[in-house]
Sequence to fold (349 residues):
Amino acid sequence: MGCSRGKRALGIDLKQDSARALFLDLARGADVVIDNYRLGVRDRLGIGYEALKAVNPRIISGSINAYGATGARAERPGFDPLLQAEGGMMAAQGGLDDPILHTIAVNDTATAAVVAFGVIAALNARERTGQGQAFRTSLMAQSLTYQIAEMTRYAGRPDNDLGGRDCVGVSALTRFYACADGWIALACETEADVAALSKVLGEDLGAMQEALSAPRDGDLARRLAEMFQGQGRDRTADRLFEAGVPCAPAITADEAFTFSWLLENELFDVWAHRRLGQVQSVRAYADFSAVSGGFVYPTPDLGEQSVEILTELGYGPEKIRTLLDSGAIFEPSQSRAHLRDGGAALATR
Fold:
């Protein structure tokens, strides 16, 4: 419901010859084809890059799999939790304790962003050369790329910050503290931050550099935990922020939907889904001066706009009916039978 908003859905069963021909016909007028099949599946379906290039030499083809294009693991399926494990994220977050799973699909989201960058780079190259091209990435590539600082080695390099099963921070002044009604985050990294924190709390936190390097579970952390324990989260955060202390309340997902400044900046909006009714979700990732941000379409069901899209592209009603009757394309009422084999997405002009 979140990730597919703004799209329209054309459902195609690529195992049928007529559907494959339709797909290649659509590719003639497309700029980009993106897929996340296992390695080799696109070629077996007859819609690999060479097939696309044959009908449209300017096509940009972006492919994502789990483990890359070569080696023993290349054809394996992969999912975000597995890549969190093999990319080192779970062990790093767990530190000396058990591995920790990030419930947010970090690698999935990161890969989507990098693929968008890849598409833009390839389109920019096409503007200069006139040629299309294929590019490939993987969940593993993003698992490492988004840990690029932690995955860099050289002589004398400081150790990475140590995670933990109950990790509340990396030091006494860069961590979370429990208040009477929630949690607050501190991110004090300078002597000025320490001085401001001391003033608000009315406590001498000791020598500046010692305070900045104090461990997350040492004497200073325990003193601060006692100070915050009985205080109101939001009032304390406001007092600290006004004094210049880097801090923020740790809000929950439910709170985010009613958090005043998020609403003032129109980061959420409410829209209608044809089956599920009213939906509240993120409005846009950015606003542009030339065009409005946000999404034009609600999240589609599989194949919801199959007839609409083909009609717009000039296919006649008899041709569309033949494709529907054969199952080469499908609408929502037929979509569950086609969930087994995945799909590919065309970005049309």
